[in-house]
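Subject: complex prediction, re-run

Hi both,

The earlier run crashed halfway through, so I resubmitted it with identical inputs.
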Amino acid sequence: MAKSETDVDTARPWQSYHTVYTNAKAGMDGVDKEKVQRIVYQMSKGSSYFKNEERKEADIREKIDNMRARLAKLTAADLSHYQMVADKRISELEATRDLSRIWLHVDMDAFYAAVETLSNPSLKGKPMAVGSLSMLSTANYEARKFGVRAAMPGFIARKLCPKLIIVPTDFKKYNHYGDLTRKVFQKYDPNFLAASLDEAYLDTTEVCKERSITGEEIAEEIRACVYEETSLTCSAGVAPNRLLAKVCSDINKPNGQFVLPNNLLAVMTFISSLPVRKIGGIGKVTEHVLRDAFGINTCEEMLQKASYICALFSHSTADFFLSVGLGLGRTDTPEVRLRKSISNERTFSATSDEMFLYHKLEDLAEMLSTDMQKEGLCGRTLTLKLKTASFEVRNRAVTLPKYICSTEDILKHASKLLKAELPVSLRLIGLRVSHFNEDRKGAPLDSTQKTLINFIVSGDASRKVMDNHSDPCVKNDDETSLSIGTHETCSFNDRDTLNCSLSLKLDDSNFTFSNDAGQMEKFQKTVNENVDETKSEVTQLLGADFSPPVEGNCLERMKSEIKLLEGEAASSNQREPFLWVNDYKCSICGIELPPNFVDERQEHSDFHLAQKLQEEESGTELRTSTPRPRVVQKDPIASQGKRKKQKLSPKEGKHIPIDQFFTRSNQNF
DNA sequence: GGGGATTCCCCGT
DNA sequence: TTCCAACGGGGAATCCCC
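This time it finished cleanly. Structure:
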């Protein structure tokens, strides 16, 4: 009797550890897959990475179980219905089939490794990979014989192949050779599509027609030409569409080619036994789902199980799977595609040191801003990517009313997103900007963007005074009209703090406001209007008994604050709140903030100032506790657990407790 | 209900 | 000795506002 799957799992636990490393890849025939899998398992077992992989595996299994349960519930009538839907869709897709084009997919062989060998011939014939001990970008064919491959950590690769030479990446070199190959492609198809540095799709239909040559001949010619120009080999696939051409280029790798004739029988025969995993877009997870939930292993089986596919997947996903079953792919010449986003990310040793994390964020913001300005991009959605010490990936995004590209703007908003996650131990931080402006000339679309002082003086009534983020150094007032602004205010969960935020609002123009009497008068009018507006908003929020303690002579308050900040009261003790010991430690409460974290330090100073003003006004010590700097001390409720949006259940009714409001707002940053 | 925003997931090099 | 990347595109689920 055959051993059960569980028995096998117990005896060889590595067999259930699904990595991509044992997937069939060019040059990996004859590799002892079991040995590779065992070593990868042994090297990984017990690590945070491994635990996270197990968690992901469990999620996929759950997803598969759900799908199987849904499939089991389908009645005969349902299946008959979905079969009709599938049949209709299949004939519609079939009607789009175009066998007239001759597409070529060219793929350089172990590109980075080949380039490195070219510049250092002593590497020839030796197992070698490009990358680092953390991660390999590619491996040459000698290394692949040991099971070493791209996307494998170097330290595992070394275990598989102790003599492996690891060469660091050098994109300058790869770009140079990439350019040379592209010059060749250009000659055959001026509109060729570069899929990456080392891959391209060419529509050779016209050139074949003009010269009365076949796809096979043109592929040979192009490969020879690439070799002549670069001394590097490449492989090619020729087929009636790009999807198939890509599959074909992998068949006779390295330094080979495969031609799929432009006729229906050839295509359908080719596709009939093709494993789904060979199709671009079907990766480890989708392969797993198709196999375990639907029993689909080959492309042909997509058509056999078409009714199930239509029953469980969305239209677009079902269309994709059915197209794969028919061997259909794109045959049109792709239009110029504009970049959709720009990002950067860095991995480091896991840490919860907030100073370190903010510094990293600052570096990333600066790099991203530089990259954006090089390309003349401005975007309005900023996404912060985090990877925790346990490899959990989180994305937090904010969409702004204005386009940004400066380091200051990126850092300002990224900091807010990061703050909402603290405390946390991270091993990666990334920033991404998307939703670009359409002109893409570098300048923000809104050229009328006001400085803070202009804004206040002009008395823009739309401004939300609830915003407690006063930042005289940054000339962007965008967050004020953003929900995020009000949410952030509500991250404070007591009324004292709300009062404080109102006081702080009055600090907005401290640094830039002139002493001109007319301006002062105008300013006070605006401030008073804003206070009234805010008072009404806050009253609505907290109830009629709320009375902010900031009424009174705002002009006098402003004057005294300006004096304080300009140093006119330098001799008095009033300057004390603005002293930062060693540029990062507050002398009042001892809180530490990175020196370059200007916004937060300013905000913190403002806090002490507001506290002092309140004390002066009431004549009593309102608070004896230390302030609640948002950077370090966070609402423990808001920062704990998952940040998934929480929908209130009907049971919870329409009345949202005020605490809940504050907590939730912070979470939904 | 439609559409934008947010988050997560999947995939590729 | 070392201990799992850096991007970028796109789909889908969910939530929220209009």
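The longest helix of chain A spans residues 48-73.

- K.
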